[in-house]
Write a structure and sequence with these properties.
Elements: H1 2-7, H2 12-32, H3 35-38, H4 41-52, H5 56-65, H6 69-79, H7 85-103, H8 107-139, H9 148-209
Helix pairs in contact: 2-8, 2-9, 4-5, 5-6, 6-7, 6-9, 7-9, 8-9
Length: 210
């Protein structure tokens, strides 16, 4: 394997770097995109219970203690509890976009690797063929063995670029779908929160008038 790597020439080094980069980001995103870390169910149950019991201050404290994306969204929604539904909704959507951007961080790099790797392989193909033609121009075509180095470099880099690009593209699409699914869940619960806060605010207003 190492011999094939060396035969691929200098272009194999950026291709290898791309493969390591894509795999590293994929594993990092898998770890940080765990749904129980971003949208912890136990936290959601507890904070909703506090809101239902109108323990707003305790709910805020709970949100501050939790470092999940969902906790940040709920915290800002509760802080605007008394400013009306539209204010709460706008705040929740704004914070939601910020948290969504955090979830998508580095994912685009994997997509870039999937696009660049075949181009690097193609570049290696071109440099390998240039070497082969240089040999032909000097020695002619009488000795096929002398052409082997350039031709092997061309074929190896082409294969290496595709070997990196195909898994990278699969990883990219998987991460994109995972992020989209998490964001959709966050949006659904955020709207549920807005409705819940509005209901509690309306009930409190009605009770104060009695």
């Amino acid at each position: 394997m190492y011999e094939l790597f060396l035969k691929g020439g200098i272009i194999m080094y950026p291709i290898a770097f791309c493969s390591i980069l894509a795999l590293g980001i994929f594993l990092e995103r898998l770890w940080n995109l765990r749904e129980r870390k971003i949208i912890p169910k136990d936290f959601l149950i507890e904070v909703e219970d506090l809101i239902n019991r109108r323990k707003i201050h305790e709910a805020l404290i709970l949100c501050r203690r939790d470092r999940s994306s969902m906790a940040n969204i709920i915290f800002e929604g509760i802080r605007n509890f008394n400013q009306g539904r539209e204010a709460v909704k706008d705040t929740v959507e704004g914070i939601g976009r910020q948290e969504a951007a955090k979830l998508e961080r580095y994912v685009g790099v994997v997509g870039t690797v999937a696009s660049v790797s075949p181009l690097l392989g193609l570049l290696g193909t071109v440099t390998g063929m240039i070497k082969a033609f240089n040999v032909i121009s000097v020695q002619g075509v009488g000795n096929p063995g002398s052409l082997a180095e350039g031709i092997s470099e061309a074929l190896i880099t082409t294969a290496a670029g595709l070997i990196v690009a195909i898994p990278a593209y699969v990883m990219y699409r998987y991460l994109i779908s995972k992020v989209d699914r998490i964001i959709l869940t966050m949006e659904k619960y955020s709207m549920h929160l807005v409705d819940l806060l509005e209901e509690k605010g309306r009930t409190a207003s009605e009770e104060s008038m009695i």
